[in-house]
Amino acid sequence: MLRTVELGRAVITTETSLELWLTTLITLSSKQNCIDLEQLSNSALISFLTSGGACVYRSECMSLVSDITMRGEPVDRDDMESLAARIVNAPAWGQLNLLPSIPEQLGQFGNQTIRINLGQSSKDIDDGIKKCHRLVATMVPDGVPTLALHSIHLNIIVSENMSKTSVQRLRKSQMESTPSFSQDTFPYDDGKGDTPSALSDEQLNLEHCSDEEILFATTEPSLARQTGKRKRSVTASNVHMHVPDSTGFPSDTKRYCHGISSTLGTPLLDSHTLQKSEVQLLSHMVDAAVRFSVLNSLKGSATGLKVKANNFTARLADVAPTLWRPGFLSVRVVTKGLSYTNVEFIP
């Protein structure tokens, strides 16, 4: 049985007036029903996935699904095809040993949706990269739960930056129209009784990713590291917006989250066609959304992108490190081998 769980939400800003509102979900299933995923609450499932007590592998039909709207309107089909081609040609897939491909009929998923199939690469992209040790291919030990990752769903909404006055006016209007909601309490409709809490500054630190984890190392244009002080995350006291109906989302995942919601106000433009510069900017923003979902970091992304707010509770690199953390297995095989050789046996 499939189970969808939300990893978190974030807001990414650009040097222009645009903001990207991101919600990331994953869909998994348990192999041979070794564990009942439906019996776990969302928070318990996230804790289980990130504890290292389960093996998450790629399903035969694993895909990356991105629902994208620009200023409240679907993106033109030609622009979506161009954007999909940019994503497929990203250099990170070679590092992850994944082979992306676009379905023959992109339109069957709708104008605002890009679906990219992620297969296993049959050959090394770089002949200079040392192949993994043969011990990496060993089977999962008995008793270790195995889960299949079927899809990564990114809900991406790009909108003009709302001023502080507009946010306060919208929040005040919604508080008056929904008197049953207190300012600090949000309905969390997952049927499990979970209430997400605000993250601490330590949890919001984006600087813990090692160099080997940085993806898209050759992404164009020239990449720049983030500098300067990191701003504090937006909290429930300054952002409270209505969650719109998003096509393609499971109904049980539409909910308010403490700190960030998915709304963006009214559409500003009626045109679906983007300028060439906007397509390029949108591709950089989608690249950043994928990167942030994997590592919760924008290191290596295009210049000018910053994290404005973040309440991710897990990243793909922690949920499925064998898939989304480059060199995870080979590094650990070497580490274990060195530890074994340093063991002193006492007669």
How does this structure look, described?
This protein is an alpha+beta fold and 347 residues long. The chain has one domain (2-341). Helix content is 24%, strand content 22%. It contains 8 helices and 8 strands. It has helices at residues 42-50, 77-88, 92-96, 164-177, 276-295, 316-319, 321-324, 328-341; strands at residues 2-13, 18-30, 55-70, 73-74, 98-101, 113-120, 146-160, 306-310. Strands 1, 2, 3, 4, 5, 6, 7 and 8 form an 8-stranded mixed beta sheet that branches. The longest helix has 20 residues, at 276-295. The chain is globular and about 55 Å long. The termini are far apart. Mean pLDDT is 68; it is low at 124-138, 179-193, 195-272 and 331-347. Residues 174-197 are annotated as: Disordered. Residues 175-185 have a biased composition (Polar residues).
Percentage of residues assigned to helices: 10-25%
Describe the sheet with the most strands.
Answer: 8 strands, mixed
- Tell me the strand percentage band: 15-25%
Poorly predicted tracts of residues: 124-138, 179-193, 195-272, 331-347
Count of individual beta strands: 8
Structural class: alpha+beta
- Computed over alpha carbons, the radius of gyration is 21 Å
The total count of helices amounts to 8
Shape: globular
- Written as H for each helix and E for each strand, in order along the chain, the element string is EEHEEHHEEEHHEHHH
What is the residue-mean pLDDT, rounded to a whole number? 68
Count up the domains: 1
Q: Give the termini separation.
A: 52 Å
Region (Disordered): 174-197
Biased composition (Polar residues): 175-185
